[in-house]
Design a protein that fits this description.
By secondary structure, the chain is mostly beta strands. 14% of the residues lie in helices and 44% in strands. It has a domain of 107 residues: Sandwich (Immunoglobulin-like).
Length: 153
């Protein structure tokens, strides 16, 4: 014999469980639905979509020896200047090519040089790191500008 109200309680619990499951499934980020990622038209300029998320000028000591690094002296190292960061393609369309240029300046604002890095293949809705090697005296470089100069679908 069924107790009064048992049937409606089961229906309520079943409906509540389905609602909670459906709600949580949308919040966990496990869905692979890319319908919200824009797909630019064929004639769109990729530079209007791709972006540099962050970038920084770094100076580090690197070895100039070809050995295993054992017994290196200060004479075997140099300061290397790099501009690093990330490029993002927020669209639903992959990029074939992306190029960035870093221009470096000394303490007085005088332009020292411009250097570039490029990448082939940046997937749709993806981010990739870039690394621009700067061939200037590390003691001279103080500031930098970064520009996206070219991209193609």
């Amino acid at each position: 014999m069924q107790r009064p109200g048992t049937h409606s309680r089961r229906v309520f619990l079943l409906a509540s469980g389905s609602t909670v499951t459906s709600t949580l499934a949308g919040c966990t980020g496990t869905s692979d639905d890319r319908s919200s990622v824009p797909v630019p038209p064929n004639d769109a300029d990729p530079l209007e979509y791709v972006s540099v998320e962050d970038h920084q000028l770094t100076v580090r000591w690197v070895s100039t020896s070809c050995g295993d690094g054992v017994g290196e002296s200060e004479e075997d190292t140099i300061k290397q200047v790099r501009v690093t960061g990330t490029i993002t393609n927020p669209t639903g369309r992959p990029l074939e090519y992306v190029s960035v240029e870093a221009t470096v300046y000394d303490a007085t604002g005088t332009r020292l040089g411009t250097y570039s890095d490029e990448t082939n293949g940046l997937a749709a809705d993806a981010t990739r790191e870039f690394d621009v090697l700067v061939l200037e005296d590390a003691g001279e470089v103080r500031e930098h500008d970064l520009e996206l100069v070219d991209a193609s679908w």
